[in-house]
Amino acid sequence: MRRQLIKRYFITGLLIWVPLGITAWVLVLIVGTMDQSLRLLPEAIHPRNMLGFDIPGAGAILTLLVIVLTGVLAANFIGQRLVTWWERLLTSIPVVNSIYNSVKQVSDTLFSSSGNAFRKALLIEYPRRGAWTIAFLTGKPGGDVLQHLDGDYVSVYVPTTPNPTSGFFLMLPKAEVIELDMSVDTALKYVISMGVVAPPPRPRVATDRRH
Asked: Which end of the chain is more exposed for a tag (fewer CB within 10 A), N or C?
């Protein structure tokens, strides 16, 4: 009896400390990586030389500040001209242009406010009939692919679990795709948890059955 009680307390403690520990580890890793940006600062204005000690997280603040300032500059006319010139320079360099263009297309699709990527959570039959999984709408097929598809198709991304950064790209008939009344964040949590963290059921609207 005592063993079962201790085991239950131990598991309860793990459920509390494991998420906290992993969260802290990820934050320390991210902040530590961003702190490497302090190496780009001149020695004269480095926090260690000015204050006599290092400031944890100063690199993270500097990185976020540079990103925000870059966005502010790129939002005006002069900044847009500079970005255009910089992109032309990169695309004129062999090897670099292919890598940069590929990464830019993916980032524009994922982070652009006008993009369609990951805007809807879907339910599809995969990898066989009778087996269902969560997928995300990424757009519609284009280019020469349209010449070989008969009907209305959509492009979907099927993430793997528990790592949703890897997955499969599929083109499916729109009629075989079910749009879920679920946010993308909720669907991602459902996938990452391997179905353990199930989304709460939506209340059904009562219908009038009177004839």
From this structure: C
The residues pairing with 125 across neighbouring beta strands, listed in sequence order, are 132
**CA dist., res. 91 & res. 83, Å (int):** 12
Pick from 128, 180, 168, 175: nearest CA to 154? 175
What is the DSSP code (8-state) at residue 56? Answer: T
Count CB neighbours of 164 within 10 A: 17
pTM: 0.54
Say if residue 127 is preceded by a cis peptide, omega within 30 of 0.
yes
Task: Give the separation between CA 66 and CA 59, rounded to whole angstroms.
Answer: 10
Tracing tokens 């580890």 back to the chain, one arrives at: 25
Question: Which residue has tokens 């949590």?
Answer: 189
| 122, 135 contact by CB (below 8 A) | yes
pLDDT tens digits, 82-99: 888 888 888 888 887 888
